[in-house]
Amino acid sequence: MPDIVHVTYGQTGQSSKTNNMGMREMQEKVYQARDAQYLLLKAPPASGKSRALMYVALDKLINQGLRKIIVAVPEKSIGGSFGKTNLKDFGFFANWEPNDEYNLCTPGMDGNKSKVQAFKKFLDNQEKILICTHATLRFAFEELEEFKFTDTVLAIDEFHHVSADGDSRLGELLRSIMEKSNAHVIAMTGSYFRGDSVPVLKPEDEARFTKVSYNYYEQLNGYTYLKTLGIGYHFYQGKYTSAILEILDTNKKTILHIPNVNSGESTKDKHQEVDFILDLVGDVIKVDTDTGVIHLKRKDGKVLKVADLVNDNPKDRDKIQNYLRNMKSVDDMDLIIALGMAKEGFDWPYCEHALTVGYRGSLTEIIQIIGRCTRDSNNKTHAQFTNLIAQPDASDDIVKISVNNMLKAITASLLMEQVLAPNFKFKTKLSEEDKAQAGEIKVRGFKTPSSKRVRDIIESDLNDLKATILQDDTMLKAMPGNVDPEVINRVLIPKIIQTKYPELSEEEIEEVRQHVVLDSVVKNGEIKEVGDKRFIRMADKFVNIDDLHIDLIDQINPFQKAFEILSKSVTAKVLKIIQDAIEATRITMDFEEAKILWPKILDFRKTFDREPSLQSADPLERRMAECIIYLKEEKRKKANG
Known about the structure:
By secondary structure, this protein is of the alpha/beta class. The chain has four domains: 15-214, 3-Layer(aba) Sandwich (Rossmann fold), CATH 3.40.50; 225-390, P-loop containing nucleotide triphosphate hydrolases (Rossmann fold); 419-585, no CATH class; 588-641, no CATH class. It contains 21 helices and 20 strands. It has a nine-stranded mixed β-sheet with strand order 1-8-15-14-9-13-12-11-10, with helices on both faces. A six-stranded parallel β-sheet has the order 4-3-5-6-2-7, sandwiched between helices. Strands 18-19-20 form a three-stranded antiparallel β-sheet. Helix 3 packs across helix 4 and helix 20 crosses helix 21.
C-alpha cells in the first residue's frame, strides 16, 4: 500500500547548530521564556528537551531565587537523560550536577520506603536537584504531613501522563501545587494531544502556562541525514502473523510492536507470537547469556541481533534493557520486538522502520512510536512508520469495530501529515496587487483573528483542535465520501469547535473554523512552482495560489486524499463493507446540512432531469435523496403543528 503521508525535508543541519551558550535553536527559544512561572514546552523527540530543562532550571535556581529542582519522569530508564552534564564548556554559566544519592530512578519499586524517605529528606536539606519517577513523586506527595513545595521548580517530563481526569493522581498533585504554593512548573512533552479521550489540563489551568512550541517540521527539516519520512498502512485478513513478512524487511533496523493482548489483532499468546515471528525470519542459533541478545540466522545466512522486550522475566528483561541502553554502533542491534516498551524516551537513533501491529487508539502513543524512527543518524536517509491493521470482513460480528479502527488509524495519519508539514501564515488578500511574502498564503474572504483568544488557539492549539476534529465520530463517518465537503467544513467542524471552546462568539468560531479548514486543506494539498507562480493541487485540480478564495476552500473535502488511497488500496467489496457499516450509523440530517444540500439538489435535477436516488452507488447522491426525505418530513411536521 502506498504511503498516506510522505514528507521530504531540507537536510539544513540547523537542528544541531548551537549558540555561544551551547544551546540549539529549540533550547534557545525555551530559554527566552525562562522567567515564566508556568512553562509548557511542546517539542519532538530528540530535539533536546532534557537539556532545555537544565538551562531554564539552573537559571531559576541561580538567578530567580528558587531553591530546589524536582525532575519527574514516567519511567526509570528516562532518568538517565538528566544525569550530570557539563554545560560550562559550551559557554553556559553553570553545570548540571545532581547528587547520585538523589537520583531515585534506580532499581526497586517506585513507591518503596527508601525512595519515599529520600524524597522527603531532600525537601528538608540543602540539596538542590532530585530526579524521580512520576510514581515516586505521587507516593511521596501523599505521605507529606505538610506542604513543602514553596520556592521549588517542578519539572514534569512526558507531560501527557498528567490528566484533567479527577482520578488522575498526578493531575491532582499538579493542581494542588499550583494552588497552594509559588512553585514554578516546567512541563515538557513531544506528543501533547488534547484530542485524546481525556484532556491533559483543564482549559483554565492550561491558560496559566506560557507555551513554547518547536514543531516537527522545524526539527526534521534541520537534520543532517534524514531526507524523507513515510507513514503508511497495510491491511491483512486472518492472523497478522501470516502477513508480517510482507512488510517486515529485516535489512532495515526495525522496532516491531506486536498488538496488545486484549486487542482483536492479538492471538492472545504474546510469547508464542514472538516465537512465530522469529521462526518466520530464520533460526535461533544462540541467546547471549550476558546480554540477552538473540542471534537469529536468516534464510540467506546473515545473522541478525534481536531483542525480545515482550519477555516478562525480570532478569532477562533487565539484561536486554541494559544492553540496549549502552549500544554504541549500528551493528549492535537489527530488530527489537516489543509490546508496551520501546516507545517514549527510548533512544535507538539507527532505527529506520517502526512497524506497529493493530490499531492504536491514542494519538500520543502513535506519535511516540513514530518518534522512535525519526532520530537523525548517518545510516539512513528515510524513516518509515507502518501500521498493520485487520481488514474488515462482512462475516465478522465485529465488522463495525474493524471499520471504526481502520478509519481512526487513517485519520491519525491525516493528523500526522498536518504535524509534519511546514507551516504557512495565512492572511486576507485585499487586491490583485496584494502579493504574499515568503511563507505566506493570501486568501480572499479570509477572516483574520479578532481577539487574543482566537490568536492563541491558532498559534498554540491548532494541532490539538485538529486532533479533536479528526477523532470525532461524525468526521470518521464522513471520510468515505458520503458527506458533502461544504457540510464537513461549514456544519460539522464549527459544531466541534463550539463544543471544544464554548466561550467563543459566533464570529470567533468562524475565524477559527476558516483557519483550521484552510490550514488542513493546504497541508493536505500539493504545492508546485511553475515559473514565478505557485499552484496547489486540491481535489484533483491545480489552482493558482494567488486565486484562492475561502469559498473555494470550503468546497474541498479534507479527507479527500485518505479516501483516494483507501479506495485504491482495498477491494471494491471491502470498500462497500466500510460504506455500509457507516451507512448503518450515519449522522442525523439537520437543517444546516439540508440548507447546503438543497441548491445542489436543484442542480442535480437540472442536470439529470430526475431526483437523486437512495439506491445510487454515489454516496453524495444518496445523501441528497435523504435530504429530500428529511425536508418532506419537516414540512409535514410543520403542517401538523
